[in-house]
What does this fold into?
Amino acid sequence: MRAPSRRPAARLRALLSGPEPIRLVGAHNALGARLAERAGFDGIWASGLEVSASHGVPDADILTMSELLATAQSMARAVEVPVVADCDTGYGNAINVMNTVRRYEAAGIAGVCIEDKVFPKMNSFVSGRQQLAQLGEFCGKVEAAKAAQEDPDFVVIARVEALIANRGMEEAVRRARAYADAGADAILIHDKDRSPASIFEFIDRWDFRKPLVVVPTTYYSVTVDELAAAGVKMVIYANQGLRASIAAVSRTFEEILSAGTSAPVEERIAPLDLVFDLQGVPELKRNEELYLRSDAPVEEGAPHRATPDPAPADAAALVASHAN
Ligand code: SPV
Ligand code: MG
It folds into this structure.
């Protein structure tokens, strides 16, 4: 088997041309990205909703592009699997989109997704204002994104919000075709129904000129196998990690306060050795052994290191040393 390419965009392209459905999961920091990779997801969705929530602000173009980029970049540095960045509306007009693509590509992001709403956008599940961009204007953004990328493997996903904005199936299909023809590498068709019926109707009407991406947040009962059988190429579980952590952390905090001790929660929270492992302490220990030199005089003929090559750090010992 060929070793996976180091280039994230090439890895995403390989997944897109492979036979299996691609499963991405949302994250908002490097730790979440590592958990997703360890769980076995094919890639990371740098979710605007998750990153905004992690900063305590609405998903409504409140954070700046630089803030979102820094977060996506820290995720991309932490994992081997590709990171697809949710770039909302692209942070401005077609010219801003070009800058966005250049900056995200240079940061090691495999691909971006831009959606056809006006800036400032509102999260698709927040009721009220969901204003679509003009079709021609958004096609210009897609063309600009494709013109700006340097790596031909970099992926630009165009997201259709017509069903979110209650503009109907006809408009959704019309827009998806136009964005595909403008050069988008894939089309994300988004919906807020509890049933996947509209998504399946869209799929029935799609000619598969470009691969399809879906986000089954509200119509969560559908399985990846059902979606893949219908022809969907990429499935994004956009915010389940965030919601899991909100539920778990809230419960843990409440229990500690009500018990007056953390004893009741210790059994089910992650041990410190897992935290150390996830943040790369074993690697740090190996590097300390290799590269931290003492200034003390070295005996003639003795190695410059005090100890031989280290074994991978023992997690239990690490916990013990930190506990003392
Ligand atoms: C996100 O995760 O930020 C998304 C998906 O864009 S959604 O929240 O469904 O709009
Ligand atoms: Mg988003």
